[in-house]
Amino acid sequence: MTVLKDKDYIKIPVKTADEQTAKVSINSGTVEQLCTLPGIGEGTAEKIIAYRNEKGLFQSLEELKQVTGIGEAKFEKIKDQISL
């Protein structure tokens, strides 16, 4: 802990719009949350949930490509917007 003295100041950085965007968890996201990802509709969101219910939680983001309908191109579009 640091004690501030007279005329000391603290600079608090401001988050940019990119940093404020919350990521969607592929391990706990709902159909509605997954549908907010570009190129992911209700059908694909349901496939993601069915995959994790059958196989267990995703161990890596790349494992998402094992879901039918998620190819390399779609994965590249969403990889920065998802988390485990």
Structure notes:
By secondary structure, the chain is mostly helical. It has a single domain (23-83), classed as Photosystem II 12 kDa extrinsic protein (DNA polymerase, domain 1, Orthogonal Bundle), CATH 1.10.150. Helix content is 35%, strand content 5%. It has helices at 17-20, 31-34, 42-55, 72-78, and strands spanning 24-25, 82-83. Strands 1-2 form a two-stranded parallel ribbon. It starts with 16 loop residues before the first helix and ends with a strand. 15% of the residues are buried.
A few lines on this structure:
By secondary structure, this protein is mostly helical. Helix content is 35%, strand content 5%.
Key phrases:
mainly alpha, elongated, DNA polymerase, domain 1, single chain, 84 residues, two-stranded parallel ribbon, 2 strands
Architecture blueprint of SSEs:
Layout: H1 17-20, E1 24-25, H2 31-34, H3 42-55, H4 72-78, E2 82-83
